[in-house]
Amino acid sequence: MTGRILLAGAGLFLLGFLVSPASFAPLFQPFTRNNAPAIYAQTSLLSLTLSHLAIVAVAVAASTVVGLALAILVTRRAGREFLPLARTVTAVGQTFPPVAVLALAVPVLGFGTGPTLVALFLYGLLPVFETALAGLTGQPPAIIDAARGMGLTPGQRLWQIDLPLALPLLLAGMRLTAVISLGTATIGSTVAARTLGEVIIAGLLSSNTAFVLQGGLVVGILAVLIHHGFQGLENGVRRRMGLE
Amino acid sequence: MIEIRNLTRLYAGMPVVDDVSLTVERGQLLVLVGTSGSGKTTLLRMINRLVEPSSGRVLIEGVDTATLPAHLLRRRIGYAIQGHGLFPHRTVAQNIATVPRLLGWPRARIAARVEELLDLFQMDPAAFRDRMPHQLSGGQAQRVGVARALAARPDLLLMDEPFGALDPLIRAKAQADLKDIQRRLGTTLILVTHDMAEAVALGDRIAVMDHGKLLQDDRPARILTDPATPFVADLIGTADRALRLLSLIPVGAIAVPGEAEGAPIAPGATLRDALAECLWSGRSALPVEGGGVVTLDALRAQARHP
């Protein structure tokens, strides 16, 4: 209960700050020096936040589609031999630093949103792939046996049994990917993507701690809210299936 | 009618089911019994092709099952397993409707069939239709599992240790209910168990398997009185075979005209029940409901090895 109240409080604070940043100036004033502005006003914080969220949403959607498709492929009879390859690809995607991906992608895709999406997509592949794989392979043998015995075709088993049962784990993977991407997206601003990283970078360049703080705070609160949103969905699905 | 002809399944060159031939008549209840690793489950799973035979054939009503697509074959054969295997994300009604939906029954017909089955298994449709499997007790989940297997009115029902997860009290009731329902619907039923008592209680016929081979296939009384091999004799056990033999015969079958003292016994009760009642109440004869008596002497004669 206390958790919910805190969460709602954080959400309201964020909403208020984004709608009317100037009203929060006194809060950030102590972190400025030499009468520097306390609130970032170059671009509207609300539009930066929406753009940030849109980039993360597209990247998470792409990671989910590809990660899930890979997991489905390697759990089919015909695709089983691709499992080591898929594991390697997603692991490399996770270990290759996003900053390096940005640097490599800019010559090909140019400045802007493109390189950021690629970096986030690669970075977010591993959690979705691994959790989907666990969800698709870790099902109770009796259920698989019953589904086959009832005469479901492999396609029907996938859609009607395997995927619904893997849903809680898949949602957990998406939650991890979304939270990771939310933080990582800030570096997109180094290659001119419109993200909240813009506020943080402006703060770093002008030695204005208030900017760094408000950029980080917005990203942080968003991450907490999204984390809990996904967890709520997961718990709902689990409860329905009697998993807790 | 199911004909199993010279069915063999090899794993890594070793036969798990070794040249088994069996025929099950329409409406019969055959129990496959054996220890674990005897090949009974593999034999069962070859009938609906969850396991493909290495050699041999299975014919259902004269049609070789190998000529049908496996998933279409399975939709015609009911299948219930230990631990029920209900789909946890679907309601009781949706679980029962699985095969009718696959067969493309109209919605109204499916709903009516679900009601009918829940009624048949003594579960109030209004209370149970929309429950999730995790909200059921073990016995209820087991009944839903069997209802699901029967949903599309299969001519043949396969059951693999269907009562294995139930406690003894519920198990006895579930067995009696199953036998009753099987009689009423006239479904051919092949059931796998490791429990000889269950086999004797349920089977019209018992097929005993060991190390992949079919050792004996006969009526329960014959299995008890004439075990074909020492292994079959061991499986029956010598301690209570006389009582098991008595449990196969209803009181009505040996009642003779006469009068006796005390509370009467139902003609449908088994001789084993009658013997227990005689011993418990110290009587040497019991009146049978609707006339006649059953005597302790007659019971002893029935229990004696022929």
TrEMBL record, chain A:
Signal peptide: none
Domain of life where this protein originates: Bacteria
Localization annotation: Cell membrane
The keyword Aminoacyl-tRNA synthetase appears for this protein: no
GO CC terms in record: plasma membrane
Alphabetized UniProt keyword annotations: Membrane, Transmembrane, Transmembrane helix, Transport
GO biological process: transmembrane transport
Statement: the UniProt record of this protein carries the keyword S-adenosyl-L-methionine: no
Cross-referenced InterPro entries: ABC_transp_perm/SBD (IPR051204), MetI-like (IPR000515), MetI-like_sf (IPR035906)
PROSITE patterns: ABC_TM1 (PS50928)
Topology with respect to the bilayer: Multi-pass membrane protein
Parts of the chain that traverse the membrane: 48-74, 95-123, 165-187, 199-226
Annotated ranges, domain ABC transmembrane type-1: 49-230
Main location: membrane
Pfam assignment, any one: BPD_transp_1
Family under the similarity heading: Belongs to the binding-protein-dependent transport system permease family.
Protein name: ABC transporter permease subunit
Organism: Paracoccus lichenicola
Automatic annotation (TrEMBL), chain B:
Keywords: ATP-binding, Nucleotide-binding, Transport
Pfam families recorded: ABC_tran
GO biological process, one term: quaternary ammonium group transport
Residue stretches in coiled coil: none
A molecular function (GO) term: ATP binding
Domain ABC transporter, first and last residues per copy: 2-236
Record has Lyase as a keyword: no
Family: Belongs to the ABC transporter superfamily.
Full protein name: ATP-binding cassette domain-containing protein
